[in-house]
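Re-run with default settings, no changes from the original entry. Doing this only to confirm the output is reproducible before filing.
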Amino acid sequence: MSDKRARPPQPVASEHIALKARNVSFSWESTPLHWLPGDPFSTHTINVLHLLLPAGERWFVHVYKQVLPLIEDEQLREDVIGFIGQEAMHSQAHDEVLPHLREQGLDPTPYTAQVDWLFEKLLGDRTLPPGRPRRWWLMERVALIAAIEHYTAFLGDWVLNAGELDRRGADPTMLDLLRWHGAEEVEHRSVAFDLFLHVDGGYRRRVRTWATAFGALVFLWQRGTRFFMANDPTLTAGRATLRDFHRAGRAGTLPTTGAMIRSIPRYLSRDYHPSRECSTAQAVAYLASSPAATAAAARTHGAA
């Protein structure tokens, strides 16, 4: 018996939106190393995004350019092209934070070199014979991206609603980067899953690649946080523990462990569709007020 459903999960039509890349830019001169005052642990846990996303999102773009010829639905093709544009911009924006970290005495190169190897070598293109083997590897990566995008949307929704970051006096430039990116993750949250359903949709593949993606994200995130805490020049014996993560979640400066755990059965449900998670209206509302996004829009209109 096939593990594909006869009727795929149905999206919420009102949550769909035409996607566009926003050519944002950020100035980091005034952003302190601990951009969340008095909380290096939460700061560095979130800072792991700057280590993972540049290589990860370049990999997304690379894989999706390979799968574009397989897309037979014109609306989905437009969505994927919009997704590619947004992800390329995300990669660039986070990459630009890294020189700022180096200037403050925290060189991320040893960690980012490992991340680059992961995406370029371990998950990169392989020399496979044409036909079924080559398609299998492409479908595995498409499914992995769908699973990862479940968590990027989860994080995007969290940061849009993380009022504690404002109350703690988070650096406004960093907060805008995170919320601009998070809002766009919410905007395009259905694209990766819809693409997976379109070209494959196998439930067993969805479960298998979710387990791989979730395990890899947890491993990479804890390694990244420990790397930052151990190499922060302002800390002595900086460390990162699971207890610290639980504590920060309860305080509202990181997602809660419970929320992360509850997201698992939702993705693994046969009826799951990302359009039932988060709020496109909230994302669009933030993007209409984001300093970086509105400045990008003004530059675009001025150049027109």
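Residues 207 and 268 are 6 Å apart (CA to CA). The two ends are 55 Å apart (CA to CA).
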